[in-house]
Amino acid sequence: MRHDVIRKATNVSLDVDLVRQARELGVNISRACENGLEKQVAKDRAERWREENREAIECWNDYVEEHGLPLARHRTF
User: Fold this and answer.
1) Average pLDDT, the chain
2) How far does CA 47 lie from the centroid of its chain?
3) 29: CB partners within 8 A, 6+ apart
4) Contact 32, 22 (CB under 8 A)
């Protein structure tokens, strides 16, 4: 867990039953929401990167398919 992070109070709307269950289990709701948001942000960034670089990746894949890997002759496996 990162302790050196500046936090901002934020209002969120959550399922009442889910909040009740979390409290019964002693779940830190703020940290759980933060963890879920962190994972979602990472996922969305990765998807955005793939989309922004899709054309270059396709071009490289086409090159490798046509010509093979550039340094394949140096492989020892």
Assistant:
1) 94
2) 8
3) 14, 19, 22, 23
4) yes
Q: Determine what percent of the chain falls in helix, strand and coil, rounding each to the nearest 5.
A: 65, 0, 35
List pLDDT tens digits, range 28-39.
Answer: 999 999 999 999
Q: Fill in the DSSP letter of residue 25.
A: T
**Residues 6+ positions from 14 with CB-CB distance below 8 Å:** 29, 33
Q: What is the pTM of this model?
A: 0.73
Structure tokens at 44: 């969305």
- Nearest CA-CA partner of 28 in 57, 61, 1: 1
User: Burial, 34: exposed, middle or buried (Cβ in 10 Å; 0-12, 13-18, 19+)?
Assistant: middle
Q: State the first-to-last Cα distance of the chain, in angstroms, to the nearest integer.
A: 40
